[in-house]
Amino acid sequence: MDKRAVALSEAAGCAVIYCAAVLLHYVYPLSRGAALSIVFGSVNESVWEHTKIFAAPYLGWALIQLCWLRVHFRQYVVSKVIGLYLMAGMIIGASCLLSLFTEQNIFWLDIAVSLITVITAQAASCRLETDENRLSEYFLPALMLLMLYYLMFFSFTIFPPKTDLFRDPVSGGFGIVERIAEKER
Question: Which of 24, 99, 112, 155 is the most buried (most CB within 10 A)?
Fold first, then answer.
């Protein structure tokens, strides 16, 4: 495995993932609520929806990397799953931390947190992929965690738990079902 190639592809992934997430943030209103935009885009301004828009680009870039890099498959999958959960945890943690200091979103701070989160997840993934470690032993648990993440990914937009993580700070509602019901009134 060429460590330099892995590092360069992870660095390039930072830009690709971030730019794709920005597009996914706006795809729902721009597409007038098309079905795919509901699944992959941000249907409201909740912390979950901001977490969700980074997950699909992260997985997409991981699949692209897998096609052209010569990596140890099991170790690669484990490192990417760890990176995915790290990215989601950092977005949620930063949002919770920021909510202690301000009630409103600060645009430049949201951008900075998002960039730092993507860079950190990619760097951690790169480190885990290229280190001599025994991560491949955790392949099956990582695969189950990946399936769990995407199960949440697909279900929580439609049927979100009624917690602050899923509350839209603009409307006070939860998920897409309440948003559609609100429009019909």
Answer: 24
